[in-house]
Amino acid sequence: MLQKEDIIGFIYGDVGSTEFNFAVNGSKVKKFDYIFAPHKEGNMLALVMDIKQISNLKFEDASCITPEGELPEIESKLSAFADVIGYRDQRGVLQSPRTPFNSGSGIWRANDDLIRQVLGLNADKENGAYIGLLKGHNLKVFLNIDTLVQKHICVLAKTGGGKSYACGVLVEELLKKKIPMVIIDTHGEYQSLSKPNKSRKEQKNMEKFSVKERDYSNQLIEYSPISSRGNAKHLQLSGLNLSAREIIDLLSAKLSGPQIGVLYQAIKEVKEYKQVYNLRDIIDAVNRSKSNAKWNVIASLESLDSIGVFSENSTPVSEIVKNGKCSVITMKGVPPDVQEVVVAQLTKELFDCRKAGKIPPFLMIVEEAHNYCPERGFKSAVSSNILRTVASEGRKFGMGLCIISQRPAKVDKNIISQCNTHLILKVTNPNDLKAIIQSVEGLTNKTYDEIQRLPIGVALVSGGSLQIPILTEIRTRETSHGGRSVDISKKSDYEEPEKSYESIKYEPPIQRSTETQKQENKTSHPTEKTIAVHRVASRLGWVETDDPEETVKILTKEAEKMNENVFHYLESLVKIGKNYCNQNNPECIKCPMKDGCRFRTTQGKKIGFFRRK
Q: How many CB atoms lie within 10 A of CB 30?
């Protein structure tokens, strides 16, 4: 029940339907307070956007005041400017008034129920992620978890604006709900999720936000592309049966038309004799090409293979994405070009497995997103295409995307525009501000100024289950913050290492020898052509091995020694195997190699149209 004594002001002046001024009664009104304004169409919620003091002191009088003189008697009153948010109709739809407010109408402070109803703060502890308190009010802000994961998130702020801190809060909430996550951790900040928040300064604020310190070490799994990285597991990506298109997408240097043709032909030849092949097989096939265009292709493939993250024994995707687990891919110490390849290939594997239903729905978080999906014109990254695909199609398949960046202007605008939930903290760069206003729905030119003035720890939250953007004080983290700035002026626990910085270099994992690879990959998958070649070579007595793929390798080396075209050489054996040297009923009498066949005779010279040394 509204009481007249609770009135905090009265509307005055020229009044519209979307904004108004009101004279403040007392001094209890502050900027960003929510207020109730009576209207014949419904109970209107409005937000105080500015407040100023109006006095009777004129410029002429103020200019005559001297330091020693007495101040004249000054009368002043407060005036506030409010933006109208609207009201809920009978269907629960947010509506704006179509007629102006009445001058002289009283203004009350909005109660919690009206704020929740109009703003759409309907998510609760059961189905929402608690990210903080509504600015200026003791109202908890929950974001709907299904909306967060299904419709993508972006967290934007300047350096030191609190973006990683805010994302850490989101991760804590999703871990509580057992949502699977994969985090691309560029700077190694998310390892701290395994440690409780012991900061004395932040522990004082925990009571305000009703949180307690805790850790999530039992839900955290850390991976690194570098084999020896503390307790992190070695992340290895599948290097088997890569298609030409997949390889082209992973190469930083773009291939010309003839070079692409060489690559396609090499993979075509490899696939005819191997059901399972790796990058080395492709490189060997390209090397056998007679085209001069092969050299740049070989250099590009060698560069890709030297990264050391492609393996025949890759990390299972089902191990990376598990219910209730958060996999942190630590990129600290990994060169930028290697990071791009890892993100590109890992994202593709995750997306393909999710589409096939091999892993549960999950959220992928990408820190420093401007490095992995840059805006066209700034730079190019091999990971851009797959991240654009996930942003546009991931919702259908249950793969959510969260991008975090300190340079919104350098992030692909198509990806930002696909995000439904935005957490925007303090941003001051004009180009970044312009990019935010253009890409995020619901923001106006008035918001442009407000984002610059946001205090650290306060975010403008848009989308999700919210009807309009709201200002939220991000709650205190339960875990330690790994992205805290270093206090250079204070004494640190740093000790001079024995090695110099120059001697510390990125070292890719040690490449396994051919013999080791054979032992690790004992299961052979020969093609029909490989089996045919092996049958002919064995019966002729050219090889002693029982492995068809090993036979092809031996004959490949023989052909190279004789300067023969390897592909034509093998194809000739395939024709003999299919036309004469059948498995069950060989037609030895018609075979051109009958005189040198050990299968047909116990002795004989190896003659025919194949000359052997």
A: 11
